[in-house]
Amino acid sequence: MDTSDPGIVFDVDGRCDYCNNYNKTILPSWDVGEKGQLALAQMAATIKADGKGKEFDCIIGLSGGLDSSYVSYIAKAKMGLRPLLFHVDAGWNTDQGVANIEKLVNGLGLELYTEVVNWEAVKRMQVAFLKSGISDQDLIQDASFFSALYRFAQKHGIKHVITGSNYSTECCREPEEWGGYLGIDTTLFADIWRKHGDGKPNDDFTLVDIFVYKIWYQKILGMKVHHPLNLIPFIKTDVENELEELFGWQRFKHKHHESRFTRFYEDYWLPRRFGYEKRRAHFSSLIMTGQMTRDEALARIAKPEMDEHFLKQEFEYVAHKLDLTVDELQALFDAPKRTFRDYKNKRNLIGLGATLMRKLGLEKRFFR
Fold this sequence. Notes:
By secondary structure, the chain is mostly helical. The protein has a single domain, classed as 3-Layer(aba) Sandwich (Rossmann fold). Helix content is about 50%, strand content about 5%. The chain contains 16 helices and five strands. It has a five-stranded parallel sheet with strand order 3-2-1-4-5, with helices on both faces. The longest helix is centred in the N-terminal third of the chain and has 17 residues. It starts with 16 loop residues before the first helix and ends in a 9-residue tail after the last helix.
């Protein structure tokens, strides 16, 4: 991590607040040994008890990426659960991501439900966000994914949501300046659409606001979100090898490459337009958890994951898929930069919630 995160703080020994938070807050209570195994068994027992008499006892959002693929395997093979695998197609799937989903579904013998988001609605909102000038360009996909998942689970009475979120590869959370906005903020979406949309309603792009799923769904209706990967050994290369051997699953060049837009956004748009390199956070997590050296990370950071010819082709692909010319997308790339603070939002309220979660010990990662 470096000062491209404008809020980063280094102590007198040169350690940043991400490292200090990991050592002081995450590491002391993170146990993947006997305590973790016991907690995993207790989690499984609770989910099974609540799921008696139901077709599924939990739901897992499956993208075809590493984390969601492995947690699907753990839920079925190690926890003995009956999950529904839930995939949201927002129009940007890579062939490799789709193939991995098929391999997991067939190999585990589980049922897959795919919800296809209205592409015209996604496209129109994506263009509005590009015109907004903010760095948070992946919010459209993330909001679509989680809104659809939570809405489906609530509608069908599935109380338990299992996520692949984990400390091992995600203990260093990217700051919000890098596009890491905290949750689904319908106020932000509405204001960006009002100022940069095409002047018509976009009713097919429906969202579940962060306070709806955090308070109504979880606190009032009792929906629970579980993180089993924090309770077991999770070493990235070992897990990739295991999934490959078991299912023929194919590893990606880097995190989030199961989405063609996310790959383009993180490898091209964000670092070249804003100077924000999410790989710094991704690699920092691996460094802190002993899976990568700092020298190895710096060598990877020194060049893009994809070569220039490929990135040029992806720029053209994204433009055409969004019904923009290459020159129009380039003009948006060169336009004045803005942040979410230039639009109406609920960031202060969301921040208070995140702070409360940390004080209660319900969230240990460092949010800023």
